[in-house]
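Lab notes, practical 5.
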Amino acid sequence: MSYTVDEYRREVSAKKILVVGMGRSGIAAVKELHKLGATVTAQDINTVDKLDPKFITYLDREAIEYYFGSIPEHMDVFDMVVLSPGVNPNLDFLVDGRNAGVEIIGELEMAFRLSRGKYVAITGTNGKTTTTSLVGKIFEEAGRKSTVVGNIGIAAISKVQDSTDDEWMIAEASSFQLETISEFKPVVSAILNFTPDHLNRHGNMDAYGACKAAIASNQTEDEYMIVNYDDKACLALSRATKAKVVPFSRQESLGFGAYLEDGYIVIRDENGIVHQICNSEELKIIGDHNIENALAAAAISFFAGIDCEAISDAIEKFPGVEHRIEYCGVVDGVKFYNDSKGTNVEASIIALKALKENIILIAGGDGKAQGFTELSENLAGRVKSIVLLGRAAKDIEKAATAAGFTSIYFENDMNDCVKKALSLAAEGDKVLLSPACASWDMYDNYEQRGEHFKSCVNLLLR
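Output from the prediction step:
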C-alpha cells in the first residue's frame, strides 16, 4: 500500500460509502465504517421485515440511510461500494456504479486496508475452515497475537479497530471474497485444493480458478504461497504468483515443502533441512483429507515463523471443527455424524471416504449447478441408503440411479430425514449428514442446518 493505515482511515472518514448485503459481513462493515466517520448507506435485496430488528433500530438511532428491498436511484453519489461476499458484483446497479467511476470492493479488501498487522489467507474448495481453525490454534500455542476471521464466520472488518502492528489475522477466504480484492496482500497464502463449486456464480472453472489464484496475486518474492502438490489443478493456480511457492503432499516426498515421511509430517526448508513435526497417526481428526489439512497448516505456520514444537503440540491436540464430520452421538448402536459443512460434491466424497462403510447418507439442498455423477460413483461399498431433501433431491436421485444405486428415499424436512435414516440403519451403521449442496434453499447457512440436524439427533437421544 502507498499509504499508512492511519492515512487510509482518515480518507475513509470523508467518504460516502454504500454497503451492499446485510449478512454478517455487511452489518459489521456498516458499523465499523460508521464508527470511522464515513457517511454510510446500507442496501439489501430483502425488505425491512426480513432483516434483524435490532439492526434496523441501530440504523434508525444512528440516522444511517438504507435501501431495503430497493436500490439507490443514483450510484454516482457514492465514493465507493463495499460488498458482502454473497453479493454478485455484476448486478446491474453495481455495473452502473462501476461505469460511473465508483470504486467497488469487498468487505475483506476493506478490512485489509483498515487493519494493522499481518495476514495469513487460506482458500480452497474444501478444508478451509478446518485448516484456518488449526492455524489459529498453532499461532495461539506459539503465543502469537492472532485473530481468526473471514469466511469462518467472523467478519474481518469487525476486528480492524482493535488490530495492532504485532497481530496476525488468520483469514479463511472464499472465492466470493477473493473476487472483490484489489490490494489484499497476505504474508502467507494457501490454496488447499481445487474442484468444481459455485459454478452458478462464477460460470466456469476458469473464472472460479482465477478468483482462487487472486489470493496470491499481490504477494512478492519474500512472501509464501502454500499449495497442494497432489492436486495438479490446484498447483497450476500458483503459476502466476511472485511469492515463493511451498508445496505440500500426502503422496510424495518433496525436495522442498511439507510431506509425509514414514508416517510423520515433516517440512523440508529452503536450506534442505528436514524438520519433523508429528506422527500423522496421532491426529484426532480423521481421514486422509485431514492429513492434507494438517500438512498445509504446518507449512503455513512454519513459513510464518512458528517453531516446530508449537506446531506439533497444536496439531496433536486439535479436535476438529463443528459441522465437519462432527460426532453427534449414538442411538441404538447407530452413530450420527454432522457434516453440514459438506456443501459440495467433493466435500461429501471426502466424508464418505473418512467413514468408509455402512453409511446412511442424508443429502440434498441447493445444488449450485453442480453435477452429482462423481458423488454417485462413490456410493457403492460405502453407502447403504440415501435419504434426500431439498431442491437438488431429484438431481441426486437421477445421478445415483444412473450409477445403479436404488436404495433412495425422500423426506420434506430434517427431522423426518433423521428418523428415516435411523429406521434404515442397523447396529454398527453410521448416519451421515453430508448434503453435497449449499443450505440456502431451506436454511440461512450451513451452521443453521447443522444445528438443526444435531437438535433432531438429540431428540432421539432423550
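Observations recorded by the TA: Residues 115-317 form a domain with the UDP-N-acetylmuramoyl-L-alanine:D-glutamate ligase fold (CATH 3.40.1190.10). The chain has three domains: 5-107, 115-317, 326-461.
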